């Protein structure tokens, strides 16, 4: 087991180097003069220009710049924003809690709705509910996330307000703002549903197919043969094994959600890290882009690592299979 | 059936059982899909087509996609004449023509600049379908080359390419596309290039695992012993075994590419106005959600139904070709 974990941890290192390298190369070939990004368009003396370049290490060759950057990174220094003049770490630190909140809200929806829908669908196979779940999951994976967000805004923010005479409605933006019309968590509801939609559909599909597969296994037949009720067979025997891949999927998905949700955050003007990085790309604020992407990639890698290790822990077949290699 | 028509009923049953034993080595058909008789097509593709035609959702998806393609291709012949230009803004009539709800003259209504939304949705199909297919084509070409190098030669090449694929998987997808567009510049061509470049890693993995499962077979050794070159072995002996999963995967990834293109256009990083792209139309519609909700309904439905058709077609192909895939 330790060997497996060690090998898995070592795999992270080349990926980390690759990601930072790719980002650095993108930065090197991107059109635009970084000094102008820092100072704006005003004219300046060559001496001042050189001074600014030196201060940001822009006068050195690209490989040297890369080594300096990674070295700072490993000491927790993400650099300074070109336009804002603030430490990237502080800027991201303000936004990241919003992304974490949104991700966990979405994951809770995914766990409850996705798993329940999958179980119902598998247990009542070929019933009306099963067809409904199967069809709606196909539709959900094909919906553009931002369109779903707009539909929810129109329904809960505009139509519901009109029908109820302005009494009942949901806020369609303004999370993290100054408005106190609603308690904080209410601003999270529609974005969380939007973000959770696609993954919930996948979770339900995986849950259904896993449960159906396991219901055909020998040990389930044995459990039935010894006279257990279907309830006991499903809850005590089938579900335990069927849940493993679903939990893995949801774990990996949490990683993806923690890397920010550009589309959901844009539609709801939600102040998360995805929107922050996207806006930084737009204004060519490369230190913020680099810092943001490095942060989310590290988070994703750590979560994937935890998921893989716990998967091996939950399922002995993986553990021993890995040891035999 | 015609061969058996003159045989009495019971004897025919026996005959069918004998046929089944001869074909499969089992007295009973292995599955409910076993309905083939002498004279029927017995090729992989014939069987797949037969199963495909039984899948109503997949057939509906094909019909829908063909309809879309026909409308998009023939658009120049009838759309501008009937509904007006999808791009031109007529400043003299804009006040009277803007934000008209769906009606006889404008079945989908008009947008804030007085353009017919039906015309724009039809022309938008050109962008979406073209980006979806071209981007997937790029992914397939890069993915096949990388997958072939990785699976066939193994060793250091394999390790290097698979680590590179890990790097591509580690990036948050949409962010990566947006960053690439920031480097390449906006516009139609760069959009499908960016989506295509980022899609290779999954195809490479699919192809690599197909190669690994085939290359240890004796007939590959035999071909090599006969002096076949690497390229010939790959094309004649490995490719035919890997085609099915790649077809299924590509079909689904066309749908994915269309969603990504729509997202990019929505963010303003894709095709630029006044070109009618569905994502761009939804971006425009954001400002009129209260006053002109029809502006957001039709482009969204167009994206949904097109992507759904590719997903259902992919599901149908997967079942018909009997490809094992993770959900």
Structure description:
- The complex is a heterodimer of chains A (325) and B (327).
- Chain A has 325 residues and is an all-alpha fold.
- Chain A has two domains: 34-77, no CATH class; 94-324, MetI-like fold (Orthogonal Bundle), CATH 1.10.3720.
- Chain A contains 14 helices and no strands.
- Chain A has helices spanning 2-29, 34-39, 46-55, 62-74, 88-123, 128-142, 145-163, 186-215, 218-225, 230-258, 262-267, 273-282, 286-314, 316-324.
- The two termini of chain A are 12 Å apart.
- Chain B is an all-alpha fold.
- Chain B folds into two domains: 1-39, no CATH class; 54-320, MetI-like (MetI-like fold), CATH 1.10.3720.10.
- Chain B contains 13 helices and no strands.
- Chain B is elongated and about 80 Å long.
- Mean pLDDT of chain B is 81; it is low at 1-12 and 25-34.
- Chain A binds chain B through residues 11, 14-15, 18-19, 22-23, 26, 29-31, 138-139, 141-147, 150-151, 153-154, 158, 202, 205-206, 209, 256, 259-260, 262-263, 266-267, 274, 277-278, 281-282, 284, 289, 293, 296-297, 300-301, and chain B through 163-164, 166-167, 170-172, 174-175, 178-180, 182-183, 185, 255, 259, 262-263, 266-267, 279, 282, 285-286, 289-290, 293, 296, 300, 303-304, 307-308, 311-312, 315, 327.
């Amino acid at each position: 087991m330790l060997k497996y974990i060690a090998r898995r941890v070592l795999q992270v290192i080349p990926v980390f180097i690759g990601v930072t390298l790719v980002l650095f190369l993108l930065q090197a070939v991107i059109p635009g003069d970084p000094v102008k990004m820092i100072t704006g368009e005003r004219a300046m003396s060559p001496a001042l220009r050189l001074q600014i370049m030196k201060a940001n290490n822009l006068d050195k060759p690209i490989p040297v710049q890369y080594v300096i950057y990674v070295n700072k990174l490993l000491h927790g220094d993400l650099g300074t924003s070109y336009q804002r003049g603030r430490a990237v770490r502080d800027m991201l630190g303000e936004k990241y809690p919003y992304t974490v909140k949104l991700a966990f809200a979405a994951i809770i929806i995914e766990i409850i709705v996705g798993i329940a829908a999958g179980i119902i669908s598998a247990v009542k196979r070929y019933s009306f509910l099963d067809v409904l779940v199967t069809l709606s999951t196909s539709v959900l994976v094909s919906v553009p996330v931002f369109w779903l967000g707009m539909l929810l805004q129109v329904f809960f923010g505009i139509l519901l307000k009109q029908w109820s005479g302005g009494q009942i409605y949901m806020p369609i933006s303004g999370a993290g703002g100054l408005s106190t019309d609603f308690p904080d968590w209410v601003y999270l509801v529609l974005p969380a549903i939007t973000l959770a939609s696609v993954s919930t559909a996948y979770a339900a599909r995986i849950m259904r197919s896993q449960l159906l597969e396991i219901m055909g296994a020998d040990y389930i037949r044995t459990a039935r043969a010894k006279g257990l009720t279907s309830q006991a067979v499903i809850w005590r025997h089938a579900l335990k094994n069927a849940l493993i891949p679903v939990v893995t999927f949801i774990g990996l998905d949490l990683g993806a959600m923690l890397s920010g949700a550009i589309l959901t955050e844009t539609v709801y003007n939600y102040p998360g890290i995805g929107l922050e990085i996207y806006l930084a790309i737009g204004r060519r604020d490369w230190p913020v882009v680099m810092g943001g992407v490095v942060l989310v990639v590290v988070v994703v890698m750590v979560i994937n690592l935890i998921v893989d290790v716990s998967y091996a822990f939950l399922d002995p077949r993986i553990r021993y299979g890995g040891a035999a290699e | 059936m015609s061969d058996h028509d003159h045989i009495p009923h019971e004897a025919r049953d026996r005959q069918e059982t004998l046929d089944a034993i001869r074909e499969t080595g089992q007295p009973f058909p292995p599955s409910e899909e076993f309905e083939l008789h002498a004279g029927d097509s017995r090729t992989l593709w014939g069987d797949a087509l037969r199963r495909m035609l039984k899948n109503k959702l997949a057939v509906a998806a094909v019909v829908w996609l063909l309809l879309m393609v026909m409308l998009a291709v023939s658009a120049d012949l009838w759309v501008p004449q009937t509904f007006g230009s999808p791009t031109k803004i007529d400043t003299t009539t804009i006040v009277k023509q803007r934000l008209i709800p769906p009606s006889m003259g404008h079945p989908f209504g008009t947008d804030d600049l007085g353009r017919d939304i039906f015309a724009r949705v039809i022309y938008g199909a050109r962008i979406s379908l073209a980006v979806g297919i071209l981007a997937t084509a790029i992914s397939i070409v890069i993915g096949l080359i990388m997958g072939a190098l990785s699976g066939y030669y193994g060793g250091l090449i394999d390790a290097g390419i698979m680590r590179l694929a890990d790097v591509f998987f580690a990036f948050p997808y949409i962010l990566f596309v947006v960053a690439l567009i920031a480097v390449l510049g906006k516009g139609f061509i760069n959009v499908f290039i960016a989506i295509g470049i980022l899609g290779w890693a999954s195809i490479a993995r699919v192809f690599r695992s197909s190669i690994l499962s085939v290359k240890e077979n004796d007939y590959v050794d035999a071909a090599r012993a006969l002096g076949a070159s690497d390229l010939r072995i790959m094309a004649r002996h490995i490719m035919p075994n890997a085609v099915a999963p790649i077809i299924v995967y590509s079909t689904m990834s066309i749908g994915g590419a269309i969603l990504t293109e729509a997202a990019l256009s929505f963010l303003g990083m894709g095709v630029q106005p006044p070109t009618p792209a569905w994502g761009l139309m939804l971006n425009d519609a954001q400002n009129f959600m209260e006053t002109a909700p029809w502006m957001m309904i039709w482009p969204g439905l167009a994206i949904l139904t097109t992507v759904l058709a590719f997903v259902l077609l992919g599901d149908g192909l997967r079942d018909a070709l009997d490809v094992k895939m993770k959900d």
